[in-house]
Amino acid sequence: MTLTRDAVVDAAVDLLGEVGLEGLSLRRLARDLGVSAPTLYWHVADKRTLLDHVAERLLADQWRVIPLAPGEDWADWLRERAIAQFRALVAHRDAALVVAGNRPTEASLPAVEQVLATLIGAGLAPVDAFSTVQAVGNLVIGSAIEYHAERERPASDHGRPAPPDPQVYPHLAALRPALAERAGTPEDHEALFRHGLDLMIAGLRVSLATR
To answer: What is the pLDDT of residues 146-182, one digit of tens each?
Structure first.
């Protein structure tokens, strides 16, 4: 069977889930595909290019952007897209690390264009719209990286600091019971991400209202 770029990317996604980003190499990928390493260069120029295509595949559902419906609030539209991206990244091992620093491929450009058009239509200047896309993307990626980093911590409490002294840190001590119930859970990470996203969107609303 003729090797295609899609087959290479599919195999890379599977390998990423198996060994993580650190273990993903062109040599290992070629071995899994039963070809020589130089053969892969007919389909991807280098590992970074391969990762760009893997990032595109991991977020494939996000590139099918539904335009803003008549009467739909742009902020709600942007929020739902960001939440969907966050959930996609936390669903795959090291996906956020792959997406961080990637460059848009041809297939992702229509989605980027649609998001820019929506934000510009809401009243943002083109440069501000582009900066907003980047800022929201950074929040999504950073939150997903933190999620996976927390998940990889050992289950034991070894190395955790002692409870804060209420006499010295009254606010931290008062927060401890509430935070202990949810700290480190998937729900906690998404709640923190949503909180940051809502703050960002609230700032955009204020910026637009004062123009």
So the answer is: 998 887 776 665 556 678 888 888 998 888 877 766 6
Please give the full DSSP string across 17-44, using - where no structure is assigned. Answer: HHHHHHH--HHHHHHHHTS-HHHHTTT-
Predicted confidence (pLDDT) per residue in 33-78, tens digit: 999 888 888 999 899 889 988 988 888 777 678 888 889 999 999 9
Distance (Å, whole) CA 178 – CA 164: 14
The total of other beta-carbon atoms located within 10 Å of residue 204's CB is: 21
Q: What token pair was written down for 17? A: 């889930």
Paired tokens of 159? 């190395």
Residues in CB range of 159: below 8 A, 6 or more apart: none
Question: CATH class for domain 5-58?
Answer: mainly alpha
Q: Which of 57, 47, 120 is nearest to 88 (CA)?
A: 57
According to DSSP, residue 160 is labeled P
97 in Cβ contact with 48 (< 8 Å): no
Q: How far apart are CA 109 and CA 28, in angstroms?
A: 30
- Let me know: does 11 contact 34? Beta carbons within 8 Å: no
Domain boundaries, the chain: 5-58, 67-209
- CATH code of domain 67-209: 1.10.357.10
From the centroid of its chain, how far is CA 178? 27
